[in-house]
């Protein structure tokens, strides 16, 4: 399985698709800092404010991982090249686990590069600021660490959807709808039918990502968010394995 993960990483790290994506998002973050520098009063901005902006968009990566899922899993499923992997005798459960792990690694590498450019350019343009402290840096880091399991859970959910639907448009549409509408739907149902739907709302991936944006986030909330992310990852990895084990790969 390790060799297959390495092969997936090598295949995608050597593709322009991956690096074009990373460069494009990195440039977007850099431009955001430059525009903010031009339009804002410089002494009102610092790395602390840049980090705050980063936290406010902490839910965005759950949608960006669609590109990673497309590269690692959806594209092969659409092009019917998964049969080549199966024909090599690699167990199907290991194929699924390897693809989720490879997608997660590629996403984390991309996130590190994007964050480094975003925060680095923010530091150069605005400076650390008088309010900067190790406590602020620790709080920022803990929020990101709590968000990682939630982002990875999005990968496991997306991998399952991409296995069921070969069409990239349908896969992307369903994925986007799932993560944009589920929270609203559960809130509406809780008002119209039963407040018990709020229990579902509280354990949604998007709900927990949004909770990490609050001004003050306790350690318990961060731990709960991480647990929710791990729970979804385990659940949808199992569902993907069960579905793929019964799927006829042509």
From TrEMBL:
Matches recorded under Pfam families: ABC2_membrane_4 (PF12730)
Keywords: Membrane, Transmembrane, Transmembrane helix
UniProt keyword Membrane present: yes
Transmembrane segments: 17-35, 47-69, 100-128, 140-164, 170-190, 222-244
Protein's UniProt name: Putative ABC-2 type transport system permease protein
